Structure to design on (401 residues):
């Protein structure tokens, strides 16, 4: 073996390239960036689809400050209060029957010969004993008896109360209440999340908040808050303002607002629409239905129909709900009977449809809400725990004045 001498050429060795690994890194980074961008676009598109399923958005001003309440007790299931039936019409008093005539025997015997009598003796009354005379004197004549009975009836009727007949018991609004839901659904794929409905009241003012979160709470894909603010009246809720706020991950925040007054409603797109009696918004409709069912203004029976005018961000529509029937829902705290309502929706298959289930044992609150669009996409909100209520008011709230 010959040793290499200084200045001689080194033996040939395989060449090692140091530029191959750095050349691959930019390619991998580009692929990762492309996948991340596609994932972001997919999430934004999916969030937009979910936002469309929950409603519409437009420009809006700042919403009213949110009412506050401390929820410290669970609402336990109980039988609903009975609704008094409509009072029956008073019975008409029958007219007194005419006295029957004494029948005369058909074969009455013919009078025989009568002995002559003294005229003076014939005109004098026969002597009667003292008791018989007193009884005869105290008994009124037939005409006098009828007059006395009529006078007694008139006196009894005059002494009866003449005010209005008692009606159903006055409705008592529930105390401030929070309902929590588990969200499941399908919008171009399975979606999961949570939802919450809060009914808040302060005197004759109310707020209803419907908050929906799609995705994990620490990094939600989409959040939407729907708020109804208005007044409590003897006819139910009277919205004054409705606000929507939708926030999409890595996207802009969209808002919408409706303004109600005595003459009508201004929609989110600026259009003016004349008012309708008992007009509600997306959030207030559920509590208004609770009011109608509790007071008996709307009777829940299979095959029934319930109409409700509804103001949406870009249109005013009259919704008709079909009463499907009473169903038993399986909840985490046990089976709950609830009445299923489904709206009649015609025309475009992409229009929204909101079904709801109301539980009589939980103050007719909505224990399930399903929002559908078309035949494939839906979001299902199922109550996950007993409702929470505030302790600042007696159970059921204060009655309307």
């Amino acid at each position: 073996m010959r040793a290499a001498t200084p200045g001689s050429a080194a033996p040939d060795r395989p060449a090692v390239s140091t530029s191959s690994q750095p050349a691959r890194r930019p390619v991998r980074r580009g692929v990762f960036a492309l996948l991340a961008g596609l994932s972001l676009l997919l999430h934004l598109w999916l969030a937009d689809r979910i936002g469309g399923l929950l409603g519409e958005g437009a420009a809006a001003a700042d919403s009213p400050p949110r009412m506050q309440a401390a929820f410290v007790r669970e609402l336990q299931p109980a039988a609903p209060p009975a609704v008094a039936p409509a009072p029956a019409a008073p019975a008409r008093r029958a007219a007194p029957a005419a006295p029957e005539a004494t029948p005369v025997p058909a074969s009455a015997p013919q009078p025989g010969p009568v002995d002559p009598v003294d005229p003076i003796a014939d005109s004098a009354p026969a002597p009667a004993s003292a008791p018989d005379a007193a009884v005869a004197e105290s008994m009124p004549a037939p005409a006098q008896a009828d007059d006395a009975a009529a006078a007694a009836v008139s006196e009894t009727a005059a002494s009866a109360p003449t005010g209005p007949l008692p009606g159903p018991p006055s409705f008592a609004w529930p105390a401030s209440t929070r309902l929590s839901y588990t969200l499941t659904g399908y919008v171009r794929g399975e979606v999961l999340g949570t939802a919450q409905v809060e009914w808040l009241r302060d005197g004759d003012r109310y707020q209803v908040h419907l908050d929906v979160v799609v995705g994990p709470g620490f990094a939600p894909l989409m959040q939407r808050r729907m708020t109804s603010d208005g007044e409590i009246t003897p006819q139910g809720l009277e919205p004054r303002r409705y606000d929507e706020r939708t926030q999409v991950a890595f996207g802009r925040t969209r808002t919408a607002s409706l303004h109600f007054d005595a003459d009508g409603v201004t929609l989110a797109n600026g259009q003016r629409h004349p008012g309708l009696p008992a007009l509600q918004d997306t959030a207030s409709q559920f509590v208004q239905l609770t009011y109608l069912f509790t007071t008996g203004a709307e009777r829940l029976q299979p095959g029934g129909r319930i109409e409700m005018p509804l103001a949406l961000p870009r249109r005013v529509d009259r919704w008709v709900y079909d009463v499907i029937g009473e169903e038993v829902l399986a909840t985490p705290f046990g089976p709950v009977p609830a009445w299923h309502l489904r709206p009649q929706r015609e025309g475009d298959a992409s229009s929204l449809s909101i079904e709801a289930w109301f539980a009589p044992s939980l103050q007719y609150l909505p224990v399930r809400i399903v929002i559908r669009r078309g035949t494939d996409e839906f979001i299902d909100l199922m109550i996950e725990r007993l409702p929470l209520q505030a302790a600042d008011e007696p159970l059921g709230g204060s009655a309307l004045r």
Summary: The CA atoms of residues 225 and 393 lie 26 Å apart. The chain has five helices and 17 strands. Residues 55-60+69-74+171-390 form a domain with the outer membrane lipoprotein receptor (LolB), chain A fold (CATH 2.50.20). The first helix runs from residue 20 to 54.
